[in-house]
Amino acid sequence: MPLFPQSFIDDLRLQADIVQVVQEYVSLKRVGNSYKGLCPFHGEKTPSFHVNREQGFFHCFGCNVGGNVFKFLELHEKVSFPEAVRLLAQKFGMALPELTDGSRDPQADAEREALLKMHEAAAALYREVLAGPSGRRARQMLEQRGITPETIDRLQLGFTPPGRDTLLNHLRQKGFALPAILTSGLAMQRDEGPPRDRFWNRLMIPICREGGSIVAFGGRAMEADQQPKYLNSPETPIYTKGRTLYGLNVTKGDIRRLGYAILVEGYFDFAQVVQGGTTPVVATSGTALTPAQVHLLRRFTSKAVLSFDPDAAGQGAAVRSCELMVQEGFQVSVAVLPKGEDPDVFVRNRGGAAYQDRLRSARPYLEFLIDRAATQHDLNNSASRLEFLNSMLAVAAQIPSAAARDQFADRLAHRAGVGEEVVRDEIRKAAVAKRPALPVRQSLAGFSELTPAERDLLAGLVSEPASVLDALPELDDRDLAGSSVRHIVALARDLARELAQRQTAQAPETIPGMLLERLNEEEIALVTGIAARTPRPAPAIDCIRALRRRRYERERADVQREIDRLQERGGADSDEFAALWARKRSLLNEIEALQ
Ligand SMILES: [Zn+2]
């Protein structure tokens, strides 16, 4: 991805007065330290849209959007981040620098440009062929699959005729050189043979970047014996498979608006689901998601619903995707379809409304895991039942909240047909013995669900970045385990490290702006909302002490429960009991020292 140098973005952000920029679209009134106006992102009669000039952010208390000056333009002008940077640079008379990307040079730029143009030309040709006489069979096939002409248009579907050099000739006629055509992956050459089209006699599905440029194709076979059934473009200078999510260009607005994304596997699943009226969808193309894809999606939402057929959902790729998303802070649920039906078949047979019902009954991923493991074990057999419980204990120990762990325990007990208390005890023990190394992050809490210490720490990152960054080394990662602000604080710390390495003069005043550029929208709104409500946050070091105390108190409660449990069972003279007491005493000392 082409990037502007961070120093340029920092300079521009400092130059660009957010009040001046917003005022071009919204009439603002000064109220104390900030500015107020009618929100341009939702209809309202009393102003709840705030702009803070000094701290460089806006926030609407009505629809809960917020961000810095770039985000305002992205949302208002519906442009990408680089486009917002370009617009602002123009407005404030700053010359755009060369894009940084290590390898970038004018020649590489020209090559990329040519590759994009070739893909555009190819897609146009494929569409034309599909609409023409030789596209009749492909049109029939689409009709049989229930794809409407509107969807064909929307997804820019096309068809390559059976000839082996139709596209090649077309591109040459348009003046593209053979080496560039071969680089595009649209044609290929084996050994000394003549160059040929890669795709022929296939239904063509353009794969786009999130911004809409076509960078690759998926080609579906027309004949039953045509191999492979799906042929995809190879990776090229403009296309990396693991960085692209099919359909995001079409659905990203809906994903943002509705606050979640549905993950399906294939192109036709995607087409049917969108056509059936469910719009926040992307397709994974059947492989496990890569971290880059998860990060890409995270820019739009942190809630995902997995919708594969039940066989596929239980398989490696889907499980790996779920685990990765949970680790990356996604709230993941699973919508199971009837056996043997993927979303394509399901929507065709039962309609879009039935599909939406299924989505409404999606279950949290952790529950899904229990059910899946239960089907893999014979729960009437005691050895197998124990194996089932043990495999789930490992999952349970990762759940940070005691209440959620108990809930998980009850479900487990129910499945295994054992007493709830037994399972709760085991899980508590596992959790005390092994504090989760990688807690499942809860979905982002709202303002009111955060403790004052969490709120003030976030507000401080915006209004007093220097003093918060000074205090952050005091913060132990475990102090924020299970907290929904953990990711935000960790990112601020990374940014501070990055700045220290660059040794720019602007640090750390650039931190709030950079932070707002790297968080997802939900997180941005949380941070700007807190900052707008908390003009004078408590000192960071006090917040950190409060967080540490809370952690010790939680641990103490866990230890106490264990002590009670042992006492009830008459285990009060065991070594385990003595060790628990020692742990409790040392926790009490720590807590007292933090008063
Ligand atoms: Zn609003």
Tell me about this structure.
By secondary structure, the protein is α+β, with helices and mostly antiparallel strands. Among the domains are: 6-91, Zinc finger, CHC2-typedomain (DNA Primase, Chain A, Alpha-Beta Complex), CATH 3.90.580.10; 106-239, DNA primase, catalytic core, N-terminal domain (DNA primase DNAg catalytic core, N-terminal domain, Alpha-Beta Complex); 248-367, 3-Layer(aba) Sandwich (Dna Topoisomerase Vi A Subunit, Chain: A, domain 2), CATH 3.40.1360; 377-433, no CATH class. It is built from 27 helices and 16 strands. Strand 12 (261-264), helix 11 (267-275) and strand 13 form a beta-alpha-beta unit. Helix 3 (69-77) crosses helix 4 (81-91). Mean pLDDT is 84; it is low at 434-443. Zinc ion binds at residues 39, 41-42, 49, 60, 62-63, 65.
Short key terms for the protein model shown above:
alpha+beta; globular; 16 strands; 595 residues; 27 helices; 5-stranded mixed sheet; DNA Primase, Chain A; Dna Topoisomerase Vi A Subunit, Chain: A, domain 2; DNA primase DNAg catalytic core, N-terminal domain; binds zinc ion
